[in-house]
Amino acid sequence: METPVVFDSKGQQIVGMLHLPNGRGRAPAALLLHGFTGTKSETHRMFVKLSRKLADHGIASLRFDFRGSGDSAGDSEDLTIRSQVADALEALRYLARHRRINSRRLALVGMSMGAAVAAMVVGRERTRFKTMTLWAPVAEGAGILDNLSTPEAVASLAQTGITDHDGNLVGVGFIRQFAEMRPLREIVKTRCPVLLVHGTRDATVPHQHSDMYEKTLLHHKRIVKKVLVPGADHPFRKHIWEQRVIGETVDWLLETL
């Protein structure tokens, strides 16, 4: 069953889609966090496909639009890292309270910027999640938003506090918080196992970011598995890549959730 859902975050409406497996009992569940400028469907509907595959295997999921994204309230120029973390925590509360969800068997799945947000969420909810999966995760801000540092972008930010990123207005608050975030420091606060999936030809977030997560997690004696998808780009824009990512994620959640 797929049901549109609405809940609030800081007084603004969040729109999501709840996927429930067949049956009447309480099911384990995954919370899905989309990337920067993405939506609850994610690129080529990867989150839709993942949620449906999880439901086929008895795992529920909630995918939602951060404020300023997709169908949710707010404007993109007001989006910040802190607002995304706050939205994710509200989504977690909504999911954990649902009568069909086993709140002791929860997972996080994040894509790109959403993966960094996931790392910060588990740092705040250290014992809430049993497992997590990060697709093409951002480990640090350096070099990722260079196109927002052009002379034109800098001038616009200085004059108005916002700039244009592929038709999406981006505020100076997001850029500052993006540069300051430290997801690697946050993710080691939890002991849940982590799956990393990254394309070897990711030009947006190079796969070395997953290397940084792996190194940090191993240093802190955490359980981590890294899967590199040969030739894949940042959004995994080929069916064979997409199916590899979804398959690895479903297998991981079935094993660790």
Describe it for me?
With 257 residues, the protein is α/β, with parallel strands linked by helices. It is 37% helix and 25% strand. The strands form 2 sheets. It has an 8-stranded mixed beta sheet, with helices on both faces. The chain has a two-stranded antiparallel sheet with strand order 7-8. The relative contact order is 0.15. The model has no long low-confidence stretch (mean pLDDT 94).
Fold topology:
Elements: E1 2-9, E2 12-19, E3 27-33, H1 46-56, E4 60-64, H2 81-97, E5 101-111, H3 113-124, E6 131-135, H4 151-160, E7 162-165, E8 168-171, H5 172-180, H6 183-187, E9 194-199, H7 208-219, E10 224-229, H8 239-256
Parallel strand pairs: 3-4, 3-5, 5-6, 6-9, 9-10
Antiparallel strand pairs: 1-2, 2-4, 7-8
Helix pairs in contact: 1-8, 2-3
Give the CA-based shape. globular
What is the fold named in CATH at topology level of the largest domain? Rossmann fold
Tally of individual domains? 2
Helicity range of the residues?
Answer: 25-40%
Fraction in beta strands: 15-25%
Per DSSP, the total helix count is: 8
Tell me the distance between the termini. 21 Å
Beta strands, count = 10
- Taking pLDDT < 50 over at least 5 consecutive residues as the criterion, the unreliable ranges are none
Instruction: Give the C-level CATH assignment of the largest domain.
Output: Alpha Beta
CATH architecture of the largest domain: 3-Layer(aba) Sandwich
Strand order of the largest sheet: 1-2-4-3-5-6-9-10
The biggest beta sheet reads:
8 strands, mixed
The arrangement of helices and strands along the chain is EEEHEHEHEHEEHHEHEH
Give the CATH H-level superfamily of the largest domain: Alpha/Beta hydrolase fold, catalytic domain
Whole-number radius of gyration?
17 Å
Secondary-structure-derived class: alpha/beta
Mean pLDDT: 94
